[in-house]
Specification:
The complex is a heterodimer of chains A (about 110) and B (about 375). Chain A has about 110 residues and is of the alpha+beta class. Chain A contains 3 helices and 5 strands. Chain A has a 5-stranded antiparallel beta sheet. In chain A, a hairpin with a 2-residue loop joins strand 2 and strand 3. Chain A is globular, with a radius of gyration of 16 Å. About 5% of the residues of chain A have low confidence. Chain B is of the alpha/beta class and about 375 residues long. Chain B has a 5-stranded parallel beta sheet. In chain B, strands 4-3-5-6 form a 4-stranded parallel beta sheet, with helices on both faces. In chain B, strands 10-13 form a two-stranded antiparallel ribbon. In chain B, helix 1 runs parallel beside helix 11 and helix 7 packs across helix 12. The longest helix of chain B is centred in the middle third of the chain and has 16 residues. The N terminus and C terminus of chain B are likely disordered. Classes of the chains: A alpha+beta (about 110), B alpha/beta (about 375). The interface between A and B is large, with 42 and 52 residues.
Amino acid sequence: MCLGIPGTIVEIDVDRPDLAKVDVSGVRRMINIGLLENEIVEPGDWILIHVGFALSKIDEEEAASAMAFLEGIGTAYEEELAALASSEIEAGFIQAGRDIESRWAAEEV
Amino acid sequence: MRFVDEFRDADLARALATQIAGLCEPGRKYKFMEVCGGHTHTIYKHGIEDYLPEAVSLVHGPGCPVCVLPMGRIDDAIAIAEHEDVILTSFGDMMRVPGGRGSFFDSKAAGADIRMVYSPLDALKIARQNPDKRVVFMAIGFETTAPSTAMTVLRAKAEGIENFSIFCNHVTIIPAIKAILDSPDLRLDGFIGPGHVSTVIGCRPYHFISHTHGKPLVCAGFEPLDVLQSVYMILKQLSEGRSEVENQYSRVVPWDGNVKALQVINETMELRPYFEWRGLGFISQSALKLRDSYARYDAEVIFRVPGVRVADPKACQCGEVLKGVIKPYDCKVFGTACTPETPIGTCMVSSEGACAAYYNFGRFTRKRVMEVTSA
C-alpha cells in the first residue's frame, strides 16, 4: 500500500482528463492523475503510482531505479502488482459518470 | 562484504562506506532513525548496517502505518463490517492484522463481507455497483495515501454516491517524530526522512527537527546507494556542526511537496485532537478525520463503533520496536512465537514492518550477521 509503482502513461481519457490508462510492467490499468493537475502529463510520461493515483512525475532513470527497488523486495511488490491487476477503476468509473450526467440531463428536461 | 556486490554501483557504495567511516568522530556513537517502511526494506535487504562503522546504528521508527494502528481500531472496523448491509473494503496489507477479536480474514471467514481492494476508487466502484449495500473503505496510511482517500471522497460527492463512507485511520508523520524527539527513551543524532511521504508534504514541515531540536534530517530515496548517501549527508552535517533539512531524493521529492494533494487533504480532512498510536500512546493532532462538512462520508459518524482500547498482548514488544528502543531480535517472541505466518504483533504482519523485514532477510542478531559477512 505504501509502495510507489512506476508506470507510463498510455493515453488520457478524453471525457475524463483526470483518468489515464497506464502501463505497469505490461499490465494496463486505468488510474487517476488528478493529483498532477498542476503539471503537464502526456502519453509516454513516467509516473509513480500509489493506490490508483499518480503522485509524482518521474524520469525514465528514476522509474528504472524504482523498479529495481520493487523487484528487490519480492513478495510485497508481487502482491501490490496483483492488486493493481485486479483493480477495475476503468469501466464503472467512466460509465457511472456518464449515467449521472445523462440522469442530470434527463432531470433538467 | 557480500551485500555490497548486489548494489548497482558497487564501487560507489564502497567509496561512500569509506567516506562515512572517515566522518565518524573517534569514540562517538551515532544513532539515526528512519521512519519509512521502504527504507526498512532497503536497509535489511541490502544489509546496509553490516558495513556501516560499528559506531553508526540505524533504528526504525514508526514508519509503517499498519504497524502503528492500535488493535482497538481493527475491532471497530470489524464491528462496522458485522452490520448486515455493510461491505467493508480494505487494502490487502490490513487483512491479516490481528485485533482484539481476530483479523479481517477471521471476520470474513465468520461471514462478514470484507473485500480487498487496490485503490479507494475500487471501493467506490463497489458502492456504485451495490446501491442496496453500505460500502465502507478502511482508510489507512500516512500522507502518501491520504490524498487518494480525499480524492475519492470528493469523487463520491461529485457523483452523488450516498452509500459510500470511509473509516478514517490516516496518520501524520510529523507529530510522531515530535513524540519520539520528546521521549526520554531514545537519544537520536539524526533522521533519514521518508521518501514518498515527503513527495506529498515536501521538506518544509521537518524544519523544527533541525532548528528546534538540532537534529539533521535528510529525505532519502529507496536504493541502497540513496540510503548510504543520506547517512553520509547526515554525518557530514554533524561533522561540520550543522543541522539542516536536506533533500537527497530531489529527483522525486519537490521541496514544497504536491500542492494539489495537500489541498484535497485540507479540503476534506482536519486533524483529530488526539489519536492513539501503537507503541507511542496518545499523540495530539497526529491523525486525520473527515471535516464536519463531509460527515455523511464518515463511517465513525454513520456507525456506532465500540471505540474500546485493547491492550497489546503482554509478550509483544512492538511498542519498543516502533520507538526504536529495541531491535526486533531483542523481542522475546521474535522468530519463535511470533513469525510472519503466526504474527502476534503488527510489526511482523506487515511486510513493511521492521520485524517482518528482519525475519524475511534472516537477520536474527546483528552479531551473527557480522560473523556471516566477515566469513
